[in-house]
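Extended Data, record MFS transporter, NNP family, nitrate/nitrite transporter
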Amino acid sequence: MIDRKWINLLLATAMFNLGFVIWFSFAPFTGEIADEYGLSVAQLGLVSSAAVIAVPLGRIVIGPLTDKFGAPVTAGITLVIVGIFSIISAFAPNYEIFTISRVIASLAGITFVIGIQHVAQWFEEENLGLAEGIFAGVGNAGAGLGAYFTLPRIFGDGYSDALFASNWRAAFFYTGVIAIVLGIIYFVVGDAAKTEERRQAAKQGVSLQQWIYIATRHGAVVLSAAYIMTFGLEVAMNGWLGTYYREGFGQGDLVIAATFAATFSIAAGLLRPLGGYISDVMARNEKDILPWFEGRYREQWTFATMAFVVLALFGMTAAGLTGNIYIAVAAGFLVGVGCAFSEGAIFAQVPAMFPNNSGSVAGIVGGIGTVGGSVYPLLFAAPFLPNLHMGYAVVALTMIPILALTAWVFQPEIAENATEDGWFVSENPAATSSAANATSDD
């Protein structure tokens, strides 16, 4: 008989993968959408930002709700809502209705937080990095293998069927239908936690005061900032690279441009389990690779991968300036590798640092991290830049303060108390409540 933890991991991974397919399903069809609605390149950058606009707040809200009600409930409801609005966008008669429906359908991006919480409820600490990496890595591949690679081939140029003569409308409709079906299956088949003790521990940690306390801890803040420059970057590039390869190099073929863009997404997705696994191995083997953070093994790996992302972005600008699209695609692949390793490392730390509040912290980190997906496309397409290649170097410069904050928090004496020490709020509501209950029991 199959262990229930693998069934629940499979459900979470399928949900997240489909969520990313829907979230980024507009990206390979930006050319057709732009033609129909008469959009400029700068407006396409705004479209990329609009596609993630609802996700940061949605992730922050869905995290504690998943701790409270369990993943099967929040996953089922989310997938059904996303599916309905994806279908509505397929029939949108004008750009205004299309944009509004896609913003709501973009809530598919919050499935990440639901899955992180669900997987954390089923796997032990020593294997969290690998389990969360498998979930997030295969799920993230929905942007590359699903949205960029598969959809343009199923719904290519000239596609038509009994319902649609437009390829992008068909893609939005059928993925919406699948989302509704999967939501029902998740609600019926999924189990919230491995044990009732874990389930109750997650439920007990949900309150506004506790959320504020957690959100202001050094650990939560630095991991959120780190996720802005890694996952936020991934979201931004998933939505932008198709346009970049088309406009920056004159590559007008839909399938070829989407395939080039998919190389980044596939690297950022499929290599993420390796990033989490290496974090697990370093923690188990107590391996120091950066002596400045001696003894903070997961932190060392996380910082090293973040630094690689910054360097890779500068490399992407240099590659683009050569005018050779193949060099640019290779450089984009390396950026994807850096994102994958860093994201796997970050979400190996989240449930390990906050085991009883994994949903809330995943929501905070995942929600704030997604902000990069809204901001970075505006820099990629900024009209003040001399060309489309310089945006990557500009984004890399904005990441240096985050690296500095990370270096400060990851110092052993700071990192040791990163889940208790923080800013603005000093008193832990959970500890105060426990003390009050103990007094009343006496």
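Summary. Residues 140 and 269 are 4 Å apart (CA to CA).
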